[in-house]
Amino acid sequence: MGDDNADEDFEVALTGAISDDESDGDEPRTSSRKRALEVVGVEGDDDGGDDGGGGGGGGGGEVKAKKKKKKKKRANPADDDRPGASDPVALFNAVFVAKMKDRLIPADVARQALSPEHVAGVSPAGTFGARHLAGFVQKLAPKWRDPALARGSPKCLVISAGAVRATDLVRGLRDFPGVNAKAPILKLFAKHIKHAEQEQMLRDKTYALAVGNPNRIARLLDGGALSFDRTELLVLDTTFKDKKGFTLLELFGTSDELCQLFQDHVRGHVDAGRLRVAFF
Q1: What does DSSP assign to residue 59?
Q2: Model confidence, pTM
Q3: Between 20 and 30 A from 266 (CA), which of 152, 156, 157, 200?
Q4: Which residues contact 199 (CB under 8 A, 6 or more apart)?
């Protein structure tokens, strides 16, 4: 009987509180429920959904808490402890073997893709900003106007992971001596310039400097418009990280394209001593 009377008191109090609320219309319905609970001696809250009362709220707080559970932070692949992570040359050799081992003969797997004599230079730590590129390249190859340039084969080719970064590097190279409207930097990446246009540009004019991405460069090489026959320096932009923390050697797909490009078109020139590689 005591429980029945308590239930009746609750219903009367709740009905009266809601009726009062509907008559004045100035107070939210959650306040009406709170007043009714206070009448029968039950503590309420302003949320109106954390106890078993209105709106099927039982357990709602637990569900929200589960949804807000902190996601586990993904490790930055550029900050790991694997051998060569802080040495771009060693890292390139490790990545090359990992990507290409199923497509190489045992002798090529055993030897390094790049030996010390193949490396023209490595930019100092903290100098991967685009504004440092012109000075870095100039130190490695200061006399590019002699001999004369050849069509389809820039003296220096810079390879970056994406078009946005490549655009920044083009801006950085504008400080290089001799770069002007008559001697521009060739853009070999898929941003505002079509593949066919780039082929025509390579056939019609000579360029000392070019910046591109692995996929577009490989397509131009395969098509015959681009050649490394007179190219002296290949600069790999390996220290810059994208928004997700990946570098040219770590970005899925792009790193595979870079390694395939090196095997198909670069390695022979490097082994012959005609082309050197630098890491920016």
Answers
A1: T
A2: 0.67
A3: 200
A4: 220, 223, 225
Q: Token pair for residue 137?
A: 């390249």
Cα four-point dihedral sign 127, 130, 135, 138: positive
Give strand pairing partners of 211.
158, 187
Written as six digits, the tokens of 185 are 């930097």
157: helix, strand or coil: strand
- What φ, ψ does residue 150 adopt, rounded to 5°? -115, 145
| H or E element at residue 260 | helix 254-261
Rounded to whole angstroms, the Cα distance separating 248 from 227 reads 22
Tell me whether residue 40 is exposed, middle or buried, using C-beta atoms within 10 angstroms of its C-beta: 0 to 12, 13 to 18, 19 or more.
Answer: middle
What span, in angstroms and rounded, lies between the C-alpha atoms of 195 and 208? 20
Q: What are the strands of the beta sheet with 156-159, ordered from one edge? A: 119-122, 276-279, 233-236, 156-159, 209-212, 186-188
Write the DSSP symbol of residue 132. Answer: G
- Backbone phi and psi for residue 100, each to the nearest 5 degrees, phi listed first: -110, 0
> How many CA atoms lie within 13 Å of 152's alpha carbon, on the beta-carbon side?
13
Low-confidence ranges of the chain (pLDDT < 50): 2, 5-6, 9-10, 12-37, 39-40, 42-59, 63, 65, 72-85
Q: What is the DSSP letter of 206?
A: B
| 239 neighbors 165 (Cβ within 8 angstroms) | no
Q: Rounded to whole angstroms, what are the CA distances from 218 to 47, 186, 227?
A: 61, 15, 10
CA 235 to chain centre: 19
Residue 235 sits at φ, ψ, to 5 deg, of: -105, 120
